[in-house]
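ok so I'm stuck.
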Amino acid sequence: MLEFTREASPEVTVSDTATEVETVKPTLANRLLSLDVFRGITIAGMVLVNNAGGSPVYAPLEHAKWHGWTPTDLIFPFFIFIVGVAIPLAFQRRVEQGGTKKDLYAKVVRRSLLIFLISLIILHGFPYTLEKFSHIRIPGVLQRIAVCYFFTAMLFLTTRIRTQAIVAGALLLLYWAAMILIPAPGFAAGDLSMEGSLASWIDRTLLPGHIYRPQYDPEGIFSTIPAIATCISGVLTGRWIQMKREPLDKVAGMFGVGALCVVVGYMWNWVFPVNKALWTSSYVVLTTGLALQLLALCYWSIDIKGYKRWTKPFVIFGVNALALFVLSGLMARILSVIPMTKMDGTPGTLKGWIYEHFFTSWLSPINASLGFALGYVLLWLGLMTILYRRRIFIKV
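replied:
not stuck anymore, here's the structure
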């Protein structure tokens, strides 16, 4: 079930997954402010790029057309990486509080199902009509997070670090081999086009009429396999942070491994192009490297050096990430279905009315689009601040 908690403590909280927050005592073992900030930066970026007022849009705020990447293409893998980092930190705390493995297994199953269903029913099901549900998109952002969390958490509970690393590497290599060597029916082996890739064919075959586009789904079934490796890389990072080492050694380790991953990702790109929609193995390694470096920077500046004044907006976003993602997405859909008349007298929506009256009336088209997105982020910062000040944290 969804839980709403209120805490009287003035301390900032640390979340045990990307979608759950609880107030805990600020000890090194169970508190990592930099992770909340990293999560907050990521979810703020997600709201920004998902809510452009119109077109055109600045190139960095759009996904790559197919192969390649933009800053926008870093947001989703960063979020899945963060989910992984939080798993060992959270489970350690639950064990310290007397939780058993049976309790942990049950919580993983329950949380995974709830996250999946919240997105499927609340976001993808809107507006709630029989016609909409007959063609509802089954894959999605939260659905992929739920699947990755489930398999990664189960792997964490049943295996050691070495096995987890081997599994992550094996998933990436096997996915690469399958995508390059196994042809989709009617296409050549190694075809990585929107329509011809093996992952695209699997989505069209198994989920006809229930995917994002007719050719493929960017959160499809087969491409979720390497996304699990992204989550496992986060678990390995969380385990590294837990180790009894000097904080600067941890930062150096994350920067070093991150730099190595970036190099390997670019080298792998030569034979298996970086591609978010296909979640290629090179994309996993590259984005993991960049996530490691950004987390290391946050960890060094916030948890080690104590530079915290700038972090408050991102903490506010980070501690209620699930609420922000779901509610901002739902509001965007509502604004797009409420009818309103445009300035020229033609039918439109409330979103279009707001966009015309408050942004396009005085800004160039591309800046109006950006202005609307920034305004939407600020609106939700205000709403999330209300929850934060009341110590209300929504968890699954």
